[in-house]
C-alpha cells in the first residue's frame, strides 16, 4: 500500500472517530439514557437493558478506536473477508449510534431475557438440590463385589444416596488399605446411582460408604463369581463432573472451604490480605424533573449500614418570601423550599444542594445532576426514600469480601513447583469459577485412587483463586448481568447518579503494573471512569489486583499461572500490550521462551480437545497482541515481566459451528448451563494439562543440547547462522570470541509469529554460546558465572 493511500485511509478513520468523539457519551454503556431528564427514567434506578451483540468493523484500527472510546469490547476478534467481527456490550441507543457511524450489526447474542432464563434455570437446580440435603441422607449399597481375572484384582461398588447426585454431597468409599470417591450417574435427568470400579491389591473384607451429609453404611464385600466383567486399565478410575449450576462467589468460596476441611492433609485455605470494598453501595435518590432542576442525594453511610430507608422530603414553605430551610433527624430530612412574593417555590437546584450539604451533611452528600450548574427551580416531590438498589438476597454479605485461595499439595512448604490458577477477574464470566471448582474437586477426590492425580498433588504446590472479583460477580448475578468490573466507584459526585450505577468500577485486568495505560500502552482508559476498560486511578489501586500480585510475590515457588477468562476460545500469553503509536509492544520473549510457550500450549490444548473435541484454532493461539488486541495493564504481563512466571490466558467458550448456516457462532458470557457445563469440564482438563507441564518442568534435570547451522568453516559470502536446540531453550552467544554469560546477547524472535532470528555474519568471527532450558538446566553443565570453558564454540571465516 502506498503512503498516500495509507494517509488517506487514516484521515478518513480520524474523521470518523472525531465524529464519534463529539458524541462520546453514546459510547459509554448507559450514560446517554435520559441524560437531560432523570424523571423520564421513573427514578426507580432503571435504564436501558444492555445486549451482547456481534458487529462488523472495517479493520484493526477501528477496533482500537472502539477501545479508546470506552466501548465495552469483549475478548473475541475474528478476521473475515469483509472486516473484523467483534462482540460488544451496548444498549439499543448506543448500538444505533454506532450503526450510524458505520458499525454493522450481525447478531444479537444475549439480552436481558436470556439472563433471566439463566437465573431461573439455576434457581430450579438449587431448589431441587437444597430440598434433597435438608437432613442426613440414607446410603443404600446396591452391590459391593470383588473379583480377580487375568488382568488383576478389582473392586466394584454401586450405592445410592437419598439426596441424589448432589455435587456438594460426594460419596466416599473406604476399606482397609484404600479409599476412593464414587462417580455419580444421571441418565436423561434421572439419578441412577453412584459407582466405583478400581483395581485393588488385596480383597477387602468390608467397605464403608459415607456422604458429606452424614449418611454412612458399612457392608461386606462379596465375591463376584458370574460372567467376567471387562475391567478398566489400572489407575483409570477418574472422578469428574462436580458442578450442576452456575455458582455465585458466596457458593464458590463455601465450596472450597468445605473441600479444604474435608482434606486437611492435602489442602488449606489461604486468606489473601486485601479485603474488597464489598457488595455494597451508598443509598441514592434523584430529586427533581430535569437536568438543571434536579438534585442527586447520596447517603454518607452505605445502604446496608443505614443509608437504605433514609428519606428526603421536598416541601414548599408556607407563605410568601419564606427562606429555604433544612431539618434533619436520623431517618428523615425535610427541605422546605424558599418561596417568592407569590408563595411559589423559588429554590434552585444549586441552592438546595448547598443547604443539604450544610445542614444534613452528616447524613447525605448532595450534588447537582451530573455537574449541571443547577440554575433550574426545584419542584416539591414529597418524601423520597434512598436505596442502594442492590437486589441480592440477605445471605449475600454486603461487607468487604475475604478473597481466598485453596492451596493443594502433599508438600505445601515451598519446595515444589508452584502453579497459580485464578478466575473471574471479569464479573460477568460465569463459567470461569466452575473451571476452578471442578479442578480443585478432581485433584482432591481422585488423589486416593488415581496414580496420575497423586503424582501431581505430591509434586506440585497448587494455588487456585476461584473468583478474584467477588463483588462484581455478585452484582452480575443479582443486579446487572453484563457487569465486567468491580463495584468501586471512582467517578466522583458529578458522575455518580443512580442511572450510571452499571458503569462504575475498575477493570481488574487493566489495573496491573506492566504495560499499563499510565505508561502509554493501549487498550484501557485512565480518564473515563465509565469505560468498560477503566484502569482505575492508578496501577494496583484495587484490592482484587493487589491480591493476585501478593500471592505471586509471597510464594516465590510459583512458576506457572493460568488466568481463566471467557469467552471466545483463545489461548494466549505475553506480551499483552503495545503502544498505539508504531505498535510498540512490550519486549517479546526470547526465541527459546516463545518455543516453550508454544510447546506447553500444545500439551494443554490437547487436554481440552480430549473432552468433547473442542479445538482452539491456531490463529487464536499465541501472544495476546498477535491474536486479539492490546490489553494495557493485564495480569499475565505483570506476572511474566516482574516475576518470570509463565502465564497464560484461557478464553473458555470457543465458538460453536452451525452446520445449517455454515458459520461459527459465539457462545457468550453466560450460555445455557448445558453449554457452560461442558466448557467448564473441558477447560478443567486444560488446567490439569498445565499441571502436567509444571510437573515435567519440576522434574527436568536434563540439560539441553544445541548445534550451529551452518557449521564452523570457511565461506565466500556472508552467512546467516541458526541455532538448533534439542528442546525449547534460550541461547546466549558472543561473536568476538569472549566467554558467554547470562549478560550476553540472546537469540531473539525474527518477527511476529516467526521463529528465531538468524544471526548475519559478514566478517570472520568466533561464535561462543550455550543454551538454558526453562527449568534452568545449562547445556553441558556449564557455569556462566564461573571460569569454565565448556561452552560451545565455532569459528566462521569469511574470505
UniProtKB/TrEMBL annotation:
Keyword 4Fe-4S found: no
Keyword Hydrolase on entry: yes
Cofactor: Zn(2+)
Domain annotation Peptidase M14: ranges: 336-694
Keywords, comma-separated and alphabetical: Hydrolase, Metalloprotease, Protease, Zinc
Superkingdom field: Bacteria
InterPro entries reported in the protein's UniProt record: GH29D-like_dom, Peptidase_M14
SMART domains in the cross-refs: Zn_pept (SM00631)
Stated family: Belongs to the peptidase M14 family.
Name the record gives this protein: M14 family metallopeptidase
Amino acid at each position: 500500500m502506498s503512503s498516500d493511500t495509507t494517509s488517506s485511509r487514516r484521515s478518513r478513520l480520524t474523521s470518523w472517530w472525531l465524529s464519534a468523539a463529539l458524541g462520546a457519551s453514546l459510547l459509554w454503556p448507559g450514560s446517554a439514557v435520559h441524560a437531560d431528564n432523570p424523571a423520564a427514567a421513573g427514578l426507580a434506578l432503571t435504564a436501558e437493558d444492555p445486549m451482547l451483540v456481534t458487529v462488523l468493523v472495517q479493520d484493526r484500527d477501528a477496533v482500537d478506536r472502539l477501545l479508546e472510546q470506552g466501548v465495552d469490547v469483549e475478548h473475541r476478534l475474528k478476521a473475515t473477508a469483509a472486516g473484523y467481527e467483534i462482540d460488544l456490550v451496548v444498549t439499543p441507543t448506543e448500538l444505533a449510534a454506532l450503526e450510524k457511524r458505520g458499525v454493522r450489526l450481525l447478531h444479537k447474542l444475549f439480552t436481558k431475557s436470556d439472563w433471566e432464563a439463566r437465573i431461573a434455570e439455576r434457581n430450579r437446580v438449587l431448589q431441587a438440590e437444597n430440598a434433597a440435603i435438608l437432613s442426613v441422607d440414607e446410603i443404600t449399597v446396591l452391590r459391593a463385589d470383588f473379583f480377580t481375572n487375568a488382568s488383576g484384582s478389582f473392586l466394584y461398588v454401586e450405592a445410592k444416596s437419598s439426596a441424589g447426585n448432589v455435587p456438594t454431597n460426594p460419596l466416599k468409599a473406604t476399606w482397609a488399605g484404600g479409599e476412593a470417591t464414587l462417580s455419580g450417574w444421571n441418565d436423561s435427568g434421572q439419578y441412577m446411582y453412584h459407582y466405583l470400579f478400581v483395581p485393588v491389591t488385596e480383597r477387602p473384607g468390608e467397605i464403608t460408604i459415607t456422604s458429606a451429609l452424614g449418611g454412612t453404611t458399612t457392608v461386606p464385600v462379596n465375591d463376584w463369581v458370574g460372567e467376567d466383567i471387562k475391567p478398566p486399565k489400572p489407575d483409570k478410575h477418574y472422578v469428574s463432573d462436580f458442578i450442576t449450576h452456575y455458582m455465585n462467589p458466596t457458593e464458590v468460596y463455601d465450596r472450597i472451604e468445605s473441600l479444604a476441611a474435608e482434606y486437611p492433609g492435602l489442602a488449606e485455605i489461604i486468606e489473601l490480605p486485601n479485603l474488597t470494598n464489598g457488595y455494597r453501595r451508598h443509598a441514592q435518590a434523584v430529586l427533581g424533573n430535569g437536568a438543571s432542576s434536579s438534585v442527586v442525594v447520596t447517603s454518607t453511610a452505605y445502604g446496608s449500614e443505614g443509608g437504605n430507608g433514609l428519606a428526603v422530603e421536598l416541601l414548599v414553605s408556607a407563605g410568601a418570601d419564606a427562606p429555604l430551610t433544612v431539618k434533619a433527624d436520623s431517618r428523615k430530612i425535610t427541605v422546605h423550599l424558599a418561596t417568592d412574593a407569590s408563595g411559589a417555590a423559588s429554590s434552585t437546584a444549586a441552592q438546595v444542594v448547598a443547604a443539604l450539604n450544610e445542614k444534613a451533611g452528616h447524613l447525605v452528600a448532595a450534588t447537582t445532576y451530573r455537574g449541571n450548574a443547577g440554575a433550574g427551580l426545584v419542584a416539591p416531590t414529597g418524601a423520597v426514600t434512598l436505596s442502594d438498589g442492590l437486589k441480592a438476597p440477605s445471605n449475600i454479605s454486603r461487607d468487604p469480601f475475604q478473597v481466598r485461595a485453596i492451596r493443594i499439595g502433599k508438600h505445601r512448604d515451598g519446595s515444589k513447583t508452584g502453579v497459580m490458577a485464578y478466575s473471574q477477574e471479569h464479573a460477568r464470566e460465569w463459567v470461569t469459577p466452575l473451571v476452578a471448582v471442578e479442578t480443585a474437586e478432581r485433584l482432591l477426590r481422585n488423589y486416593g485412587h488415581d496414580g496420575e492425580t497423586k503424582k501431581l498433588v505430591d509434586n506440585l504446590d497448587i494455588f487456585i483463586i476461584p473468583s478474584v472479583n467477588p463483588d462484581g460477580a455478585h452484582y452480575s448475578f443479582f443486579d446487572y448481568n453484563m457487569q465486567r468490573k468491580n463495584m468501586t466507584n471512582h467517578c466522583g459526585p458529578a458522575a455518580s447518579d443512580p442511572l450510571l450505577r452499571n458503569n462504575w468500577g475498575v477493570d481488574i485486568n487493566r489495573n496491573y503494573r506492566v504495560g499499563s495505560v499510565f505508561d502509554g500502552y493501549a487498550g484501557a482508559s485512565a480518564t473515563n471512569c465509565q469505560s468498560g476498560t477503566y484502569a482505575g486511578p492508578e496501577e494496583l489501586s484495587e484490592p482484587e489486583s493487589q491480591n493476585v500480585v501478593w500471592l505471586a510475590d509471597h510464594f516465590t515457588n510459583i512458576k506457572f499461572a493460568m488466568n481463566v477468562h471467557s469467552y471466545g476460545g483463545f489461548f494466549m500469553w505475553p506480551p499483552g500490550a503495545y503502544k498505539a503509536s508504531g505498535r510498540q509492544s512490550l519486549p517479546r520473549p526470547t526465541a527459546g521462551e516463545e518455543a516453550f510457550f508454544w510447546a506447553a500450549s500444545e500439551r494443554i490444548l490437547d487436554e481440552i480437545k480430549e473432552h468433547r473435541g473442542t479445538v482452539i484454532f491456531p490463529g487464536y493461539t499465541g501472544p495476546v497482541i498477535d491474536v486479539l488486541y492490546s490489553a494495557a495493564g493485564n495480569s499475565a504481563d505483570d506476572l511474566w515481566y516482574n516475576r518470570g512466571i509463565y502465564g497464560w490466558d484461557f478464553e473458555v467458550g470457543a465458538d460453536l459451528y452451525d452446520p445449517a448456516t455454515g458459520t461459527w457462532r459465539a457462545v457468550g458470557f453466560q450460555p445455557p448451563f448445558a453449554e457452560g457445563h461442558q466448557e467448564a469440564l473441558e477447560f478443567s482438563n486444560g488446567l490439569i494439562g498445565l499441571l502436567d507441564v509444571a510437573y515435567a518442568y519440576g522434574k527436568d534435570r536434563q540439560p539441553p543440547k544445541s548445534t550451529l547451522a551452518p557449521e564452523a568453516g570457511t565461506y565466500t559470502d556472508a552467512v546467516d547462522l541458526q541455532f538448533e536446540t534439542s528442546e525449547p531453550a534460550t541461547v546466549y552467544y558472543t561473536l568476538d570470541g569472549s566467554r558467554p554469560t547470562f549478560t550476553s546477547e540472546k537469540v531473539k524472535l525474527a518477527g511476529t509469529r516467526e521463529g528465531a532470528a538468524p544471526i548475519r555474519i559478514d566478517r570472520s568471527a568466533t561464535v561462543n554460546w550455550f543454551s538454558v532450558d526453562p527449568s534452568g538446566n545449562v547445556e553441558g553443565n556449564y557455569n556462566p558465572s564461573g571460569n569454565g570453558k565448556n561452552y560451545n564454540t565455532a569459528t566462521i571465516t569469511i574470505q
